[in-house]
Design brief:
Residues 1-26 are annotated as: Disordered. This protein is an all-alpha fold. It has helices at residues 6-16, 28-39, 44-51, 55-64, 75-85, 93-98, 104-118, 125-137, 144-157, 160-178, and strands spanning 181-182, 185-186. It has a two-stranded antiparallel ribbon. The relative contact order is 0.06.
Length: 205
């Protein structure tokens, strides 16, 4: 009669091949087995033997079962912390497993979006157009970087034609104010002391 237990058979198999599933994709079944062994009080080496993995790889995957902000814990602390989180047996390890760190590209894109939301990108169309007109009329008073960001945002919103129209209107309005013109022609009070023959562009009507 064979009195060997399952653990004895597992140990015998482990002697021949310490990690028969090493290199294979990790599945939900593997993580469920980790949680089962964790609740049973098994050490990392025992857990690794049970699921056919190396202790090093098992330690790494145990950290993946922790919340994202706790995955920096060492192998010695990760397993006790997992037991602590699962103290009542209802730890949502699947939700923790679904969390992932953002890539460098994602972090950069998020930072750029935050900068835009805090700057020109946060302006509505009317505010953006007002700034663009001011930049166009006084180009030397502002940095090239600001002008570049403004032009980029105008292009992204399709406001190029509108800003040109408003700049032309603003320039015409500035000339009208300079020469004292109103909608009906030259101002009657001759506020700048010009007679008709002194008017730079001749009499207008």
């Amino acid at each position: 009669m064979d009195d060997r237990t399952d653990d004895d058979e597992l140990l015998e198999a482990f002697r021949h091949d310490p990690a028969p599933r090493s290199g294979k994709p990790w599945t939900e079944t593997d993580y469920a087995a980790i949680m089962q062994q964790c609740r049973a009080g098994a050490a990392i080496e025992q857990i690794a033997r049970r699921i056919g993995r190396t202790p090093t790889t098992t330690s790494t995957q145990i950290r993946r079962l922790l919340p994202l902000h706790e995955r920096h814990l060492s192998a010695e602390l990760a397993l006790p912390r997992l037991r602590q989180l699962d103290g009542d047996g209802d730890y949502d390890w699947l939700a923790a497993l679904a969390q992932r760190e953002q890539s460098a590209w994602e972090l950069q894109a998020k930072a750029q979006q935050q900068r835009q939301e805090a700057g020109i990108g946060a302006l509505d169309d009317d505010e953006l157009l007002s700034i663009a007109v001011a930049l166009a009329l006084t180009p030397d008073a502002h940095s090239p970087g600001l002008r570049g960001r403004c032009v980029q945002e105008l292009a992204a919103r399709g406001l190029g034609d509108e800003v040109e129209r408003q700049v032309d209107a603003a320039r015409q309005h500035a000339l009208d104010r300079l020469f004292g013109r109103d909608e009906g022609g030259w101002c009657s009070d001759d506020r700048y002391g010009w007679s008709d023959r002194d008017q730079p562009y001749g009499a207008l009507g």
